[in-house]
Amino acid sequence: MRADGRSVAIAAVGLAIAFAIIVATIASYRWWDDHHVVATDDNGLAVARVVAATLHTSADLRVSRLTGTVQATGATSRLWGWLTSTRVVKAPFEVDYFVNVRRLDPGDFRYDADRRTLTVEVPDVRPGKPNIDHARVTLDQTSGVYVSRDAMTDLQRRVASTAATAVAERAADPENMTKARENARTAIARLFGGALSAAGLPVRVDVRFAGEPGAGNNEQWDMSRSLQEVLANAQ
Q: Residue 44: how many CB atoms within 10 A of its CB?
């Protein structure tokens, strides 16, 4: 019995190792195929198509959008610095601002019956990933005695990096963040205020971001009733 049990254990371990190797091999093959293999048609010509796509769930509420034009630069050199080249590009961009409403729970809602005010504490606004439209550039200047294909690829990568950095810094500018928070307050107040009005509870919605101070010291708010209790009493 002990020998049989040991044989089963050894077989199970072997199967687990083999399964892990198979999974790793498939994952490696898919990664290589997605990133390095050129997709072609029946005639062997490269074609434009999506080679991999994943649909992700999201509960982010878009509350604002920043648009404009960014100027990006890049520089590189070859032959130990003797052959230099630069590139300047101007392209339109946009950045969306989001509030993650998935993180809200009943404890984030409090109702003041005397003031008929619902206070909602939400996560702070955060700017999304900069979207640079490189297909609609308005200026593209490349300088250099000789710009090789490898150097041009390096310049494009550097231009994309500096563009994303510049846009991200502008998106995080305190003035833009303040405006995005104001837009967020309006959007979230409309979202919850409209739902409550439809449920027969016309109340004012006060939106606060995580970390903001509460009501002034001279104000005494009755925040003991949760949103669930208010909705239950309205039925």
A: 7
Write a three-state SS string for the chain: CHHHHHHHHHHHHHHHHHHHHHHHHHHHHHHHHHHHCCCECCCCCECCCCCCCCCCCCCEEEEEEEEEEEEEEEEEEECCCCEEEEEEEEEEEEEEEEEEHHHCCHHHEEEECCCCEEEEEECCCEECCCEECHHHCCEEEEEECCCCHHHHHHHHHHHHHHHHHHHHHHHCCHHHHHHHHHHHHHHHHHHHHHHHHHCCCCCEEEEEECCCCCCCCCCCCCCCEEHHHHHHHHC
User: Residue 132, Cα to own-chain centre: how many angstroms?
Assistant: 14
Per-residue pLDDT of the chain (235 residues; tens, 9 = 90+): 455 556 655 666 666 677 667 767 877 767 676 666 777 777 777 767 766 677 666 678 899 999 999 999 999 998 888 889 999 999 999 999 999 888 788 888 888 888 888 888 999 999 999 999 999 999 999 998 899 899 999 999 999 999 999 999 999 999 999 999 999 999 999 888 888 888 777 788 899 998 776 544 344 444 445 555 555 555 5
pTM of this prediction?
Answer: 0.74
